[in-house]
Amino acid sequence: MALHLHPTSVFIGAAFGATVTAIMWWRRCGTHKSGIPRGTPRQAAPVNTQGVLTAGNTAVIIGSGSGIGRAAALRCVSLGMNVLLADIDVEDAESVRTECLAAGARDCSVVVQRCDCRLEADVQAAKDTAYATFGAVHLLMNNAAIQTNNRCSPYEHPDRWRRILDTNLWGVYLGGLAFVQPMIDQGEAAVVVNTGSKQGITMPPGDTAYNVSKAAVKVLTEALQHKLRSENCMVNAFLLVPGCVNTMIRTRGDKWIEGADFKPERAKDEREYNGVKDREYAAKMWKERGAWEPERVIDELFNAISVGSPFYVICQDYETTRAMDDGRIQWAADDVLFRRAPLSRWSDDFKEEYQRVSKHFV
Q1: Residue-wise DSSP of 195-235
Q2: What residues does 110 pair with on adjacent strands?
Q3: Whose CB has fewer CB within 10 Å in the chain, the N or C terminal residue?
Q4: Per-position b or e across 12-41, b if 16+ CB within 10 A of its CB
Q5: Rounded distance, CA 282 to CA 290, Å?
Q6: Which residues does residue 190 pair with via DSSP β-bridges, in sequence order?
Q7: What is the arrangement of strands in the sheet containing 110-114, beginning at the earlier edge strand?
Q8: What is the pLDDT, as a whole number, of residue 35?
């Protein structure tokens, strides 16, 4: 017997089927509010980093005399690792070495190497020292960086531009140039960490050269990890993206730019704050301003290395949540997608809209 359906029933059934299909597509792929399909919000599978952070293995930290590099060195020695402290400031690196020995490191397990990361010969010498002393490198951290604290515009100060790019970008490239192939040839699990910045993703106006350098570090590190996985080797790369952190970079930027006009009593960094030379006091004051301690950054980084994921180690701070970071990153990407004004977050035309939307970044 033939089954006859009312046209309305057919329409309702078709509409229901289309709706279910759309919902399944949205749940599977996601759909941007512009209507453009998006991929599933899922993290990449962990890479093999087993045994990298192991006693007896070796870390090379370029930019190790303070801040995040110092915290990484102290964490490595707490794990029983050998450490090569590479820094342009030997006095700072020696101070960190003293701290490492006080924390229980053996005298022969921590070596200082003067290294100007802008110079290929210096970085190659650091590599030669590491391999001659310890025989292998399991963790390379390209961490050296400088900034001008919002005093480097898109069309001024070519000397500042060159120094920032030479340090923040070229130094990272030279680190990879010197170390990556020997690390591959070891045939052991090993990791390269390049230190980026949220400023290299969201691009707040002011310190353009710094933003450009960190955006380039992001691109370089993404390309490095793609090549490493394509080579099917045992080395993997991670991009470390700190938020607001209590380090020396701001004071050093002020000293560089202000020169003889720099007033030490105004220094605000990990060692002193407004003339009070006390690490604990400085950390307390920076925490009130929302800055993480460098050790918190290393917690995030070493956890990612231990489990092999995520590649993008994006750190929060005491003022910024994961949701805020995600919202700001999405807003920056949407400038391109929506053909908005560049850096629209800081544009008068979009300021009210951003304020309204960002209330939901919680």
Answers
A1: E--THHHH--SSBHHHHHHHHHHHHHHHHHHHHHHHHT-SE
A2: 83
A3: N
A4: eeeeeeeeeeeeeeeeeeeeeeeeeeeeee
A5: 12
A6: 235
A7: 110-114, 82-87, 58-62, 139-142, 190-195, 235-241, 312-314
A8: 67
Q: Which residues of the chain have pLDDT under 50?
A: 1-31
CB 127 within 8 A of CB 180: no
Residue matched to tokens 């301003």: 289
Report whether 60 contacts 179 (CB < 8 A): yes
Ranges of H-type helices in the chain: 7-29, 67-78, 90-102, 120-134, 158-165, 171-186, 199-202, 208-231, 249-258, 279-288, 294-307, 322-337, 351-358
Closest listed residue to residue 32, CA positions, set 349, 330, 326: 330
DSSP letter, residue 166: I
The residue to which tokens 């009130």 are assigned: 288
Both tokens of residue 191? 């990791």
- 8-state DSSP, 65: S
According to the model, what pLDDT value does residue 206 have? 93
Residue 240, judged by CB atoms within 10 A of its CB (0-12, 13-18, 19+), counts as: buried
**In this structure, are residues 224 and 239 in contact, taking their beta carbons and an 8 Å threshold?**
no
Rounded Cα distance, 190 and 108, in Å: 22
Decide: 274 and 228 in contact? Cβ < 8 Å.
no
Name the residue among 326, 317, 258, 319 with its Cα closest to residue 68: 317
| Strands 190-195 vs 110-114: parallel, antiparallel or unpaired | unpaired
Return the pLDDT at 33: 53
Residue 122 backbone phi and psi in degrees, to 5: -65, -40
Q: Render pLDDT for 271-298 as a digit per residue (tens, 0 to 9).
A: 999 999 999 999 999 999 999 999 999 9
